[in-house]
Structure formats: structure tokens, C-alpha cells
Amino acid sequence: MSQPEAFGRYRVIRRLGSGSFATVWLAQDDLLNYPVAIKVLAENWAHQMDIQHRFLEEARILRQTDSTWLVAVHDVDVLPDGRPYMVMTYADQGSVADLIRRGPLPLDEALRLLTEIGQGITVLHNHGTIHRDIKPSNVLLQSSPVGQRVLVADLGFAKAIDEASGFTAAAGTPGYMSPEQSIPGGDLDVRSDVYSLGAVAYELITGKPPSRPPVRVPPGRIRPGLPRELDDLILSALSVDRESRPGDAKTFTDRVRSIRMAPDLPRAVPWWQRYRMPWRRAAALVAASLLGATVLTVSGGAPGLSLTTVRDAAQGIRMGVPSVWAREFHTDLRARPAAVDAGAGPGLLVATDADDWHSTDVPSYGVYATVMPGARDLSKVAEHDPCPGDPASRRVRTGDWEGTVWDWPECNGGGAFTSAAVHPPGEPATVYLEIRQPDYRPDLVDEIIDHTVLG
User: Which keywords has UniProt assigned to this entry (predicted)?
Assistant: First the structure.
């Protein structure tokens, strides 16, 4: 779906993300001078009345509950082509999934988030609703005068508890949904959400989701020093036998709160947890530092992101990368084949996971850059993989750079991919860039290019 100019009185700014059934846009309510998020039913579901009903039911539930712990729906309307859309709270700090990707959380912070998520699910259960798709990416974070605020979102799979017997189709996200949810016609109750809360708790505390059920490895084995009561609670929530789980979200949340309030709770992330990484990654960081990689934080124009500047002395290049992506540094990664054919040599990669950089199934997010002598023609990089379809091509011309950017806003369901070939005006040197990001942000691409410097 191309970017519309407006939905009713709401002026569209950019796309925030998309899923199987809908696309979410950031928009501005110019009348009230306030940002909002607008969720629009996808075009391919426009004539599916059951999907439209589910979409509108989500809006009704959120409007009726009207809770501090849930995303609020301010308005609902219909586009000229018949697709409904809802106007919702804009969460300016991203999601809990984004937070987890940045690294280990202090235990107190993880338990605070978990308590607030549990309170949101408790509100739904009290309303007579099962969420059925609780996961870190469906829990949003918003700035507030009293600090960060948790908002449970995306009730597209939510169902009334009194209709929970004999669902005709499985629903949920593998890794977070209870075993009984994977069985069409299964008999569900609120303890299915308790399983999902246990999975979210596991990931908040260890940085990784639990294994497939039955889960046998307690969080404390991955993160030593956790209270035994917390291990027991999470493993009980993840029990295959739902009779062994806490009875509902409130019971689970009350126990989390009690553990958090204990006077002997570890208050900091242990040093070994903060700095632990495989030796392969540590070696890459050392190599980068020997080549002159330095890090300093600069103010980024992209909302909610700061850029970390990394320097590769061997290539004579500095580039700005969102700090949340700067987990691994590699100085000799090859570009994709189309760029290699054009003369691109090994370059500098700063990313969340170097092993998955060239993967089309589970991509990492980050920036790759290599310097090529001469004014190279890299137009053919837009004719090859990594993404299906033709990219959107645009020219870049600033005081420091000129060249071409090729954007694939949707790349194999794994976010957005960008290739760029830029050079300083009048200078015979080309910088080839690859940028992977979870959502299509052309403004962020431009920010990265603007913070790339030769010399």
C-alpha cells in the first residue's frame, strides 16, 4: 500500500509497520495538534466480512475496556473503498520487543514491565476477553509525565471467554502461544494467556524466548542469580498441563509483584551478564578497535533513536548507526553478489547479528558500508536479490553526498532493505551502503547517509 496523504482529518506522516491483516501509520491530528497511530485493514482483506468483523471487534473491546494498560481507540471510520480503520494511541517508544533487542534489562525493570503487562491482560480477563496473541511486539511503550507507560495492543485474535470452546482455527504466534492454541477446536480459557505471559517473562529476563513446550530450562540457568520463586513461577506458567499454571493473569501478576517487592531482589544486571558475548563477537570488536573504530553518541533526527558513530580507519570511513543495532562489528564482511560484481570489496558491518546479515529468512538489522575507488555505476544492484519486486529508486543530493538510493519497503517479511551508492560531489570515490531496518524509515536512511563521512 502506497503512503496516503490523509485518513479523514488525520494527516499521514509515515508507516509504522504492517502485519497479515493491517497496516499501521503514524499520523497527525492537526485539529488537536497530537500524534496518533492509525490501523487500516489490508486491501486483500477488504471484502472478507469475517476479517472486517474481527477488526471492528478489536476496536470495540479496546474502546469498552478503556484502560490505562491498553492501547486506546479514539475513533473508527471507513475509507471510500470500504476498509475500516481505527485511530489509536501512538506509542512513541516502540515495543517491548525493541527494548529486549537492546540488551539485558535490570531484573527490577523486567519485573516492572511484566507486572504492567499482566495488569493489562487482567483488565481484558475481567472484561471477559482472552487476548490469544501476547508477545513482546504486541506490548507498546509510550512516554508519559510519570515515566514509561506500558500499553497492551493488537487484539486481532481476541475472543470472548464464553465463546472459547471449540475455536475452529488455531491462532497465536509460535513460541508464545499455549500448546492448546495450536489445536483447532481446542478448549481455551484465560490460562492460555497465562502461558503467553510466562513466555514473555522468560524473554524479558533472559533475552531469548523459551524453547518449544515442554520448557525444561529455567531462566535462572541462563541468567544465574534469579530468585528461585521466579524460576518456579515462570516454569509453572509455561506448563503444558494448564491445571499446573497460575489460575489467571491476576494470580500470575500478583506473584510477580510480590517477587519484585522482596528486599533481597538483585537490583542490577550482573557484570558477567552485561558483558557476556561469544568469543567470536568479542574478537570482532577487538579487531574493529584496532582498526580505529570509535564510538560516540550523536543526536539523530529519527524519533526515538540515537546514532552511534563507528570509524573504520582502514577504509577511512565513519558512519552513524542506530545505537540499538550496534551489537556486532565486523570489518571484512563481503557485500551481496550484485555489489561484488560491481567492484565492492569487504566492508564494515555494524548489526544486531552478523551471521544473519545475508539471510532472507531471519535478517538482522544494521548498516554495511564499503568504499570503492572511482565513480562506480551500481545501478545493477537494483536488478537482483535480496528482495522480490522492483525497488523504489530515488536520488540523494546534500551538501556532502549525491547518488542513488534503492528502497525495498517490504523484504521477504523481514523488514525493509535499502542499497545506496553515494559519493562526495566532484570526488572519485563511491560509498556503497546496505541498510536493514525492521520498518521502512526513509528518514532514517537519509540520516545514516548524512552521518557517513570519508577521511
Answer: ATP-binding, Kinase, Nucleotide-binding, Serine/threonine-protein kinase, Transferase
Reported as a single tens digit per residue, the pLDDT across 116-173 is 999 999 999 999 999 999 999 999 999 877 678 999 999 888 888 866 555 445 567 8
Separation of alpha carbons 393 and 406, rounded Å: 5
Considering only CA atoms, give the Rg of the chain: 23
Domain covering 96-270: architecture: Orthogonal Bundle (1.10)
Do 434 and 385 form a contact (C-beta atoms < 8 A)? Answer: no
Q: 214: cis peptide before it, omega within 30°?
A: yes
What residues contact 150, with CB distance under 8 A and at least 6 apart?
69, 96, 113, 116, 117, 120, 139, 140, 141
For residue 62, pLDDT beyond 90: yes
In this structure, CATH architecture of domain 277-454: 3-Layer(aba) Sandwich (3.40)
CATH code 3.40.1000 region(s) in the chain: 277-454
Contacts of 346 (CB under 8 A, 6+ apart): 331, 332, 333, 334, 370
Alpha-carbon dihedral 82, 88, 94, 100, rounded to 10 degrees: -90
Binding site: residue ranges? 39
| CA distance linking residue 77 with residue 55, whole number of Å | 12
Q: Which residues are annotated as a binding site for ATP?
A: 39
What is the secondary structure of 53-85 as a DSSP string?
Answer: HHHHHHHHHHHHH--TTBPPEEEEEE-TTS-EE
For residue 344, what are the CA distances in angstroms to 228, 236, 373, 431? 53, 53, 9, 9
pTM over 0.70? The answer is no
Question: Cell triple for residue 270?
Answer: 550482573
Q: pLDDT grade, residue 411 (50/70/90)? A: confident
Nearest 5°: the CA angle 50, 53, 59 is: 150
User: What does the pLDDT average to over 214-233?
Assistant: 94
Q: Where in the chain is the domain with CATH 3.30.200.20?
A: 6-88
* Local confidence band at 275 (pLDDT 50, 70, 90 cut-offs): very low
Alpha carbons 157 and 132: distance in angstroms, whole number: 6
Helix or strand holding residue 141 (H, E): strand 139-142
| Three cell numbers, residue 281 | 563477537
CA 25 to CA 3: how far, in whole Å?
9
CATH number of 6-88: 3.30.200.20
Q: Where in the chain is the domain with CATH 1.10.510.10?
A: 96-270
- List, by residue number, the catalytic residues: 133
The residue with cell 515495543 is 95
Q: How many CB atoms lie within 10 A of CB 176?
A: 23
In DSSP terms, 318 is beta-bridged to: 311, 453
